[in-house]
Write a structure and sequence with these properties.
18 helices, about 775 residues, 32 strands, about 25% helix, 6-stranded mixed β-sheet, about 25% strand, 7-stranded mixed β-sheet
Length: about 775
């Protein structure tokens, strides 16, 4: 069987390679984005403006419904009990005291749980969303914190109290809870998005040995946990075999399909809504709480609300896993890289598929004559890790950009000059042309605004007890567009437009920016546009992740708009000024359609529909497959600048200034984009200075599962943040835009560490940079 499997995988890889080569060599006109989006040049005053979020008044007034705020008749409240061992088997559960506690209606354990199939694991099929592939509520324990019981009660307080009365005994097994043991047991080449995380070009070790200038160091990043302020929660109810779910979800279509598979009822019988997510960052996909709530609801015969506590999020929702990275750089006398080596280890479980892909940023950022990129993964008995803002790039840029700073210092070279010296002309991994890349412009504008020219030698600048330093690093994140996008577009006789798509609002202003774009596409005012999202009754399989939702929505709306033009032109008939025009020859203007080359040939939507005796016209468009990402190398970049002060007495670091200059294509809403950049950069400060999940290697238990013990940056940690951007449209993306949600966190960790070195002369290669490492 293994021989057959290997043969199949080889054949599959060969076919994929041939397809990729064919797509790369195809004419631009055959590829989505081959013809620039008309919106890049034909704007009507909305796109790019600093429009306040249209959902803001609802949130301020307390009228924005989140998933754990939907009241249902007869609803019970759930509380989850978690295992206290890392590996073993439940031998007994004493729930008698809990069952007789005030208000308790049900205690669900593995002994009475309804039948559920394991969650289809995320990335194993197009709509799979499961965080792990284990049986749900199983007597076999796989990590410390695994749910072992669910209590339903009349109030949340009663459920929480009853949960504390449950007593569980275990037959424990030896668990793997250290990186050293996992490595000793053997590691594999990690895979990410179906591709092995390994690449060797030339003989980099030999080139490194010959290089006149070189650095070779190990950098470490810790575990991180998700801490969205709006906790993970859901409200569920059954009607026969139909399941209704109000969820905090980044992927409503994926959740419906996965829950349908778990309960064997099919996606068509699962209706998921997620009107507001409350922050996701990669963590609000499908974990145990949604199927547990649904199972408890089915068992009790009433609606159930399950809102995880902060501790519950730490116990059951994966985060970012640890990394240990070697970066070695060799350079000629002029600074040209002759060797780039970025290798190392990360950790995951055998029941998930998310190693931390820390080499992804190193694949395209710099030219080098030779390179070796490789991620090896070991396996531990712990909670399955998952995506967390800029997975791979966030910890990976810390290592790579720190090493570049170290090489620049060793060579006596300005670190910006060294980076610009190694700007690639084409993608160094795939040899594809870049769709648009203006890194140098971002660096120039950032350096001038920050005053980089005033930077001094390490340890040279002092203000009393404070040592002052500046640091810089490159930010990078790829453009993604996932398959499955679709949108329904409706124009009514009163001139209003409505777009429906199964997309999501996680706080980034999706509805606002998309309403701006749609208004410009259709030639309407924003007040005439309704953007509906977060519901599986709407078309599309759009995932809010990978900074790709904007592109997915954009491509879907473009597809629907083309169908709408065709339908309206058909309805307009021969008596219209538009007679004889094709859909490619018209655009939206002043509440109607006009010829692109002759705006006088125009008719309003109201006129067309009235003459056709139609109240409205509705179309549904499917976005094309995202072939553009295999035809061009598509990445956003930025330059992160930091000024820091370090106390020579206590070792306390204080970030005094933080600036990001970004090259992310066209900015659709300057107000919401600036907020996204700043939010990412603040999360980068947490990565650099405060955040670390404390993992007890004796028990495999997370020891700081609260915001009082897991330290996020607070107001006093965050200086005024300045952001700017090139605003150069990418000609091959919808609207000319690339995502802005994740790039802000990348590069910040290295920029802080590099500033600390410039201030103190001390190099820290182990995050977070805490007082004990600086004393």
């Amino acid at each position: 069987m293994s021989v057959l499997k290997d043969t199949y995988e080889m054949a599959k890889g060969t076919v994929q390679g041939v397809m990729q080569k064919a797509i790369a060599l195809a004419p631009d006109s055959w590829i989505p984005g081959g013809t620039p989006d008309p919106l890049i040049r034909e704007q009507h005053g909305h796109t790019g403006k600093p429009v306040s979020r249209i959902d803001g008044p609802l949130k301020v007034a307390g009228k924005a419904p989140f998933s754990a705020e939907f009241p249902l008749d007869g609803m019970l409240y759930a509380a989850v009990a978690f295992s206290t061992v890392a590996k073993g088997r439940i031998t007994s559960i004493d729930s008698a005291a809990a069952e007789t506690a005030p208000g308790v209606a049900l205690v669900m354990t593995h002994e009475n749980v309804p039948t559920m199939k394991p969650m289809p694991l995320f990335m194993t099929s197009e709509l799979a969303a499961g965080g792990n592939s284990l049986p749900i509520m199983d007597p076999v324990i796989h990590w410390n914190g695994q749910p072992v019981a669910v209590v339903l009660a009349a109030t949340q307080e009663q459920a929480d109290h009853a949960k504390s009365l449950i007593r569980v005994t275990y037959d424990t097994d030896a668990a793997v809870t250290t990186l050293e043991t996992a490595r000793a047991n053997g590691t594999d080449i990690a895979e990410f998005q179906g591709q092995p995380l390994r690449m060797i070009v030339g003989e980099p070790e030999d080139e490194l040995a010959r290089a006149p200038h070189k650095v070779d160091h190990v950098y470490r990043t810790p575990r991180h946990n998700h801490n969205a302020i709006e906790l993970h929660g859901c409200t569920v109810a059954w009607d026969g075999d139909r399941l209704r779910v109000h969820d905090a979800s980044q992927a409503v279509a994926h959740h419906a399909w996965t829950l349908g598979a778990i309960f064997d009822v099919g996606a068509e019988n699962v209706h998921v809504t997620s009107p507001l997510v409350g922050g996701g960052f990669g963590g609000k996909t499908l974990w145990y709480h949604q199927p547990l709530a649904a199972a408890a609801s089915r068992l009790a015969g009433v609606p159930v609300r399950l809102n995880l506590s902060r501790e519950g999020v730490y116990r059951t929702v994966g985060g970012r896993t640890l990394t240990e990275q070697r970066v070695a750089l060799g350079a000629d006398a002029d600074g040209s890289f002759t060797a780039l080596i970025h290798t190392g280890s990360t950790i995951m479980t055998r029941h998930n598929a998310m190693p931390e892909p820390f080499i992804t940023g190193s694949m395209s950022s710099y030219a080098s004559a030779t390179r070796h990129l490789e991620v090896r993964v070991g396996y531990m008995d712990m909670l399955a890790n998952t995506f967390m803002r800029a997975p791979g790039e966030a910890p990976g840029t810390f290592a790579l950009e720190s090493a570049i700073d170290e090489l620049a210092h060793a060579m006596g070279m300005d670190p910006i000059e060294l980076r610009m010296k190694n700007e690639p002309e084409r993608d160094p991994t795939t040899n594809l042309p870049f769709s648009q890349r203006d890194v140098e412009k971002a660096y120039r504008m950032g350096a001038e605004a920050f005053g980089w020219a005033a930077r001094q030698a390490p340890g040279a600048r002092r203000e009393g007890e404070w040592l002052i330093g500046m640091g810089v690093a490159t930010a990078t994140y790829p453009y993604y567009r996932m398959p499955g996008g679709a949108a329904r577009l409706t124009i009514a006789r009163d001139g209003r437009a409505r777009v429906e798509i199964a997309a999501h609002e996680m706080g980034m202003g999706t509805a606002t920016a998309q309403s701006q774009v749609i208004a410009d596409r259709l030639g309407l005012d924003m007040e005439q546009v309704d953007f509906a999202y977060g519901d599986t009754l709407f078309p599309g399989q759009v995932l809010a992740g990978g900074s790709q939702q904007t592109a997915s929505i954009g491509a879907s709306v473009i597809a629907a708009q083309k169908l709408l033009w065709a339908e309206l032109l058909k309805l307009a008939g021969n008596d219209s000024p538009l007679a004889g025009l094709s859909p490619d020859e018209v655009g939206g203007l002043r509440g109607g359609i006009a010829a692109l080359n002759d705006p006088a040939r125009w008719e309003s939507y109201a006129s067309i529909l009235a003459r056709a005796q139609r109240d409205k016209v509705s179309v549904e468009g499917q976005a094309p497959q995202p072939l553009e990402i295999q035809h061009w190398s598509m990445h956003s970049h930025g330059a992160i600048f930091v000024e820091i002060a370090v106390s020579s007495v206590t070792g306390e670091p204080r970030v005094r200034r933080l600036l990001g200059a970004f090259d992310c294509g066209k900015i659709l809403n300057t107000k919401t984009a600036a907020s996204q950049f700043r939010g990412g950069m603040i999360m980068g400060l947490g990565l650099a200075l405060t955040e670390e999940t404390m993992f007890d290697e004796r028990s495999g238990r997370i020891m700081n599962p609260s915001l009082s013990e897991y330290h996020l940056p607070v107001h006093l940690d965050v200086p005024e943040i300045e952001v700017m951007w090139t605003d150069i449209p990418d000609p091959h993306t919808p609207m000319g835009a690339r995502g802005v949600g994740e790039i802000g966190i990348t590069g910040v960790g290295a920029a802080v560490a590099n500033a600390i070195f410039n201030a103190t002369g001390k190099r820290i290669r182990d995050l977070p940079i805490t007082l004990d490492k600086l004393l």
